[in-house]
């Protein structure tokens, strides 16, 4: 083989490698933009449904696409393409309205036109109390984030969606609110950890539909203690095996 042949073969091999890498990056970008986006839970506002250290997949196509579906949120178009409204009870990722560079995750409680209010810790939708039943206590700081038993209540929304909520503080700040009337094109979001959630009752406010990023579907990894998934040596003691590959309800 001549020197030229060797040079051509080496050049061709390098070119193929670069091509494969570029194609893989483009494929990953398409998947992240249009299909699935990994998301880690940064706070305890959705306990007991979601815990800090949960890693989940968010389906991007669930609500259609807006500028916030794209990396860096370029202002290429307004509104949503292939819009599909969220259902009441969905656990959704959205951009924090006062600062869209931040991702939030909460439960969809109020739809456009709804009247939402908390009265004595009970959720009211359009002046009807949402059924709320005490189902027990949790005495596990990994789930509750506090070192004492916490009451757990199961709510059932008008469309039949049920989920558990924590009651950390009876008569807490968010247990009695004014009445909120959800504007058209907006949603009212709340965390399941009712006494430790910055949501639409407070600074989040109403969430515009174009700020929706996607619906939380599957927890694919979970580790306690603020550990990184890369800290494999901590898995034996901190991994939460029972949460792996579970559906988000």
What can be said about this structure in brief?
The protein is an alpha+beta fold.
Largest sheet: 8 strands, antiparallel
DSSP summary: helix tally: 3
- The quaternary structure here is single chain
Low-confidence stretches: 2-11
Give me the secondary-structure category: alpha+beta
* Helix percentage: 10-25%
The averaged pLDDT comes out at 91
Count the E strands. 15
Distance between the termini: 63 Å
Shape: globular
Strand content: 25-35%
**Gyration radius over CA:** 22 Å
Order of helices and strands: HEEEEEEEEHEEEEEEHE
What does this molecule look like?
By secondary structure, the chain is an alpha+beta fold. 16% of the residues lie in helices and 31% in strands. The chain contains three helices and 15 strands. The protein has helices at 3-35, 141-144, 235-238, and strands spanning 36-40, 54-59, 91-95, 103-110, 115-119, 122-125, 128-129, 132-138, 150-156, 162-167, 180-181, 186-190, 207-208, 212-222, 246-247. The strands form three sheets. Strands 1, 2, 3, 4, 12, 13, 14 and 15 form an eight-stranded antiparallel sheet that branches. A hairpin with a 7-residue loop joins strand 3 and strand 4. It is globular and about 70 Å long.
Topology, pairings included?
Elements: H1 3-35, E1 36-40, E2 54-59, E3 91-95, E4 103-110, E5 115-119, E6 122-125, E7 128-129, E8 132-138, H2 141-144, E9 150-156, E10 162-167, E11 180-181, E12 186-190, E13 207-208, E14 212-222, H3 235-238, E15 246-247
Antiparallel strand pairs: 1-2, 2-14, 3-4, 3-14, 4-12, 5-6, 5-11, 6-7, 8-9, 9-10, 12-13, 14-15
